[in-house]
Amino acid sequence: MSKSNDPMAQAISRLDRALTQVESRLNRLQVTARDSGDADADRARLAEELDKARASEASMAEIADAASKALGEAIEELRAAANAAEAAVEQADG
């Protein structure tokens, strides 16, 4: 009996092809799962970085507000000093 007519050989051949296809699909699924895991890790890392950036932004906004307030107070003090100096000059001239 030739191998091509042997039902057992044909069944083994079909089984071998099917197993090869299953292995190929499994390999593709493993790659997809690994890539998905990498994407999940990237999303988690990016979310953490975004949280840090938002906290940093809030901190910078507080610092900017404090600096703006301090500058406003300094300007008022300079204006008061300039007005006082101008008044003293006018009194001296007057």
Q: What is the subunit organization of this protein?
A: single chain
Q: Which overall shape is indicated by the principal axes computed on the Cα atoms?
A: rod-shaped
Averaged pLDDT: 89
Q: Helix coverage percent of residues? A: over 70%
pLDDT < 50 stretches: none
Major beta-sheet overview: none
Give the class from helix and strand content and strand pairing: mainly alpha
Q: From N to C, what is the helix and strand string?
A: H
Distance between the ends = 134 Å
Walk me through the topology.
Layout: H1 7-93
Task: Summarize the model shown.
The chain is built from one helix and no strands. The chain is mainly α.
Can you tell me about this structure?
The protein is mostly helical. The protein has one domain. The protein is built from 1 helix and no strands. It has one helix spanning 7-93. The chain is rod-shaped and about 130 Å long. The N and C termini lie far apart (134 Å).
List its salient traits:
mainly alpha, 93% helix, 94 residues, 1 helix
